[in-house]
Amino acid sequence: MVVNINQSTLSLEQGDITQQDTEAIVNAANKSLKGGGGVDGAIHRAGGPQILKECIQIGGCETGEAVITGGGNLKAQYVIHTVGPVYRDGLHREPELLENAYRNSLNLASSKRIKSIAFPSISTGAYRYPLEGASEIALKTSINYLKAHSDIEMIRFILFGQSALKVYSDTLNQLTQP
Prior knowledge:
CATH topology: Leucine Aminopeptidase, subunit E, domain 1
CATH class: Alpha Beta
Largest sheet: 7 strands, mixed
Strand content: 15-25%
Distance between the termini: 17 Å
CATH architecture: 3-Layer(aba) Sandwich
Low-confidence stretches: none
Radius of gyration: 15 Å
Number of domains: 1
Oligomer: single chain
Structural class: alpha/beta
Number of strands: 7
CATH superfamily: Leucine Aminopeptidase, subunit E, domain 1
Shape: globular
Order of helices and strands: EEEHHEEHEHEH
């Protein structure tokens, strides 16, 4: 599914984020930046030891913040590492922190003149953020960013599995209906 926002595109696909040919991919990292399971582990494995080496030099990342490394052996030139919130009950700043993770990743991409970026669904795996709420935050934040910034030409969401793709597609339809 693809929608146009000003001169930019936002698309949804099912796939493997480590195979994306965008200038940057986003890693749903943990605070230590030392790799982990899920998307984080997959990016570190596919990208090779150079990514971990750069992450160790950076030293860590707080929830809602974002840092950048090279892409190592990935097709993407850069990896933007962001830490989403662990979902407890939605009453401990989780929505705000998740929005910050997306917005800070986009701000960092803009500051590095990155034109295309691929996101996973941040915090919806091991961090248990409900997919419906997470998709709304991810897509609203991205749409609002593209409305205000013309420098990023493409945002792509790479979703794991058909059910996640359907939730994101339904949410995007709701957000873009006139």
